């Protein structure tokens, strides 16, 4: 595993700085409805989990969708709501050969105790910029379409 940081997890503030100053791309792995509630400006939405008749299941197209959007050497900052899905997504990406993957600890919403009190501030609690509009070409619908278009025909 080779990537530029000795760490694999960074705080929301560190993540924002790396995106702004070092060209990391925010890869938001929350569901489409979660992403619509607000996300880091310029974020790409590739959900790790998708709804199905059996409930929420891992997105079987996650890796192809990310690969169709980014090269294996792209600087990726993976984020979700609290850090559980982003940790899983970052591990999948590293195992698939993506070489510069960091996971934003505490996600967009932060870590909370059983009573809902903030244990660790997330991106939103840190007062970092939130976008409500998705930039063109960065919605899950568009990224999925790109991945399907790039698949070889049978």
Describe what this molecule looks like in 3D.
The protein has helices at 12-22, 32-36, 62-69, 84-95, 140-150, and strands at residues 9-10, 25-28, 44-45, 49-52, 55-58, 75-79, 100-104, 111-112, 118-120. It has a single domain, classed as Rhodanese-like domain (Oxidized Rhodanese, domain 1, 3-Layer(aba) Sandwich), CATH 3.40.250.10. The strands form 3 sheets. It has a 5-stranded parallel sheet. Helix 4 (84-95) links the parallel strand 6 (75-79) and strand 7. The protein is 31% helix and 20% strand. It starts with 8 loop residues before the first strand and ends with a helix. With 154 residues, it is of the alpha/beta class. The protein contains 5 helices and 9 strands. Residues 1-5 have low confidence and may be disordered. It is globular, with a radius of gyration of 15 Å.
CATH superfamily: Rhodanese-like domain
Total beta strands: 9
What's the shape? globular
Head-to-tail CA distance between termini: 33 Å
Strand order of the largest sheet: 1-7-6-2-3
Q: Helix count, per DSSP?
A: 5
Broad structural category: alpha/beta
Integer tally of domains? 1
């Amino acid at each position: 595993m080779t990537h530029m940081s000795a760490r694999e997890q960074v705080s929301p503030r560190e993540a924002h700085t790396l995106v702004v100053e070092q060209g990391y791309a925010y890869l938001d792995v929350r569901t489409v409805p979660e992403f619509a509630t607000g996300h880091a400006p310029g974020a790409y939405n590739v959900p790790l989990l998708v709804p199905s008749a059996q409930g929420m299941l891992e997105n079987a197209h996650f890796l192809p969708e990310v690969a169709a959007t980014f090269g294996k050497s792209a600087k990726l900052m993976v984020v979700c709501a609290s850090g559980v899905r982003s940790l899983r997504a970052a591990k999948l990406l590293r195992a698939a050969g993506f070489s510069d993957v960091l996971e934003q600890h505490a996600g967009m919403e932060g870590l909370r105790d059983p009573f809902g009190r903030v244990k660790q501030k997330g991106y939103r609690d840190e007062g970092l910029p939130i976008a409500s509009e998705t930039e063109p070409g960065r919605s899950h619908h568009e990224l999925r379409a790109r991945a399907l278009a790039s698949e070889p025909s049978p």
